Amino acid sequence: MKKIGLLPRIILAIGLGIALGSFAPDPVIRVFATFNGIFGNFLDFAIPLIIIAFIAPGIGAMGRGAGKILGITTGIAYTSTVLAGLLAFASATLLYPVLMESQASQAFDDPENALLSGFFEIEMAPLMGIMTALLLAFVLGVGISSLKSDFLLKSLEEFRVIIQKLIEKIIIPLLPIHIFGIFANMTQGGQVSSILSVFLKVFIMIIALHLIYLSLQYTVAGGLHKKSPFTMMKQMAPAYFTALGTQSSASTIPVTLERTKKVGVRGRIADFCVPLLATIHLSGSTITLVSCAMAVMLINGQNATFGQIFPFILMLGITMIAAPGVPGGAVMASLGLLDSMLGFTGAMTSLMLALYLAQDSFGTACNVTGDGAISAVVDKFSSTHPEDLTESKIG
């Protein structure tokens, strides 16, 4: 039997959680609250490990690239990611007061206090704090890059494989149960209808922002190549729809590569750019993360300021480097930032996971489709430096 995808499991978990929470007695809900408490503590333990496993080898491997093409591609990709986050912040600041006026006025009081607690907790103290893990990852990544240490890079890449297996085999399979318990608990506390209303409005806004940002990217790329941006987007459509199914930029690379060449990007440029951009260009995911984070803060009666969100966006562009090719990799990489920079509690993180994962595939589709536009821009600016590709292919 074909395995059920993550998105259907998330939707099913939300539906079943609402159904159970509408009639189940408190002791039943507390059983799932107990699981949620244990799972949440395990996530807290895993977050520093995820940060080190994603960031350190990603920076170390990027530093191996030689030539101007790597710098051009990385700079354009990071700029695109930051601009996407700023678009999401501006849109949410402008639209959320209108779209969610009723939710903002209700203020949800203190949602975490309305949730039932578990029967017991199991403490799982992280090995280090979030900022310590971030600093250690940067030090290791930059050190590996400067020393060109194959042994250290290989060791960290193997550690990343271990953490990727942890996410694939434990965290992702258990997430639907965690989300099921959260929605059962919120339904029992009388909060779910308002939260679902927020989910729907945020979902629609995020999809619209993805399409707007792709149009902007291809307007720039099309202008540089004197081609119709809409024709280029149409040629990239197979990559978009493939990513909707795979929910993985890495898994979509063959299709993205083929379509990027179809839009007119030179073969050597496309062969270099597409695998690299699959790990460093996450404009769609950034739009989703910023929009979802601001929605969750609103649900909890908090107003996101530019002073909070802008540093968060800048860090997202770095922490999501080499996020694994599994569903939800971007949000997993961002959990530490949500905690350390935006002050997310356990309940807020759970809502964030549910909201993000329910439309993760659309963010991935935006990422990979935008890779074609970034590759076209790089192709235009690197036409005089083809020799830089000889030593700098990164996959």
Quick overview:
The protein has 395 residues and is mostly helical. The chain has one domain (6-389): Proton glutamate symport protein (Orthogonal Bundle), CATH 1.10.3860.
Helices, strands, pairings?
Blueprint: H1 6-21, H2 26-62, H3 68-99, H4 101-106, H5 111-114, H6 130-147, H7 150-188, H8 192-225, H9 229-246, H10 253-262, H11 267-280, H12 283-299, H13 306-319, H14 329-340, H15 346-357, H16 360-381
Number of helices: 16
The number of distinct β-strands equals 0
How is the biggest beta sheet arranged?
none
State the shape: globular
CATH topology: Proton glutamate symport protein
| Average pLDDT level | 80
Structural class: mainly alpha
CA-based gyration radius: 21 Å
Give unreliable regions as ranges: 104-112, 385-395
Helix percentage range: over 70%
Hey, roughly how much beta strand do the residues contain? under 5%
CATH architecture field: Orthogonal Bundle
User: For the record, what CATH class applies?
Assistant: Mainly Alpha
CA(first)-CA(last) distance: 33 Å
Order of helices and strands: HHHHHHHHHHHHHHHH
Number of domains: 1
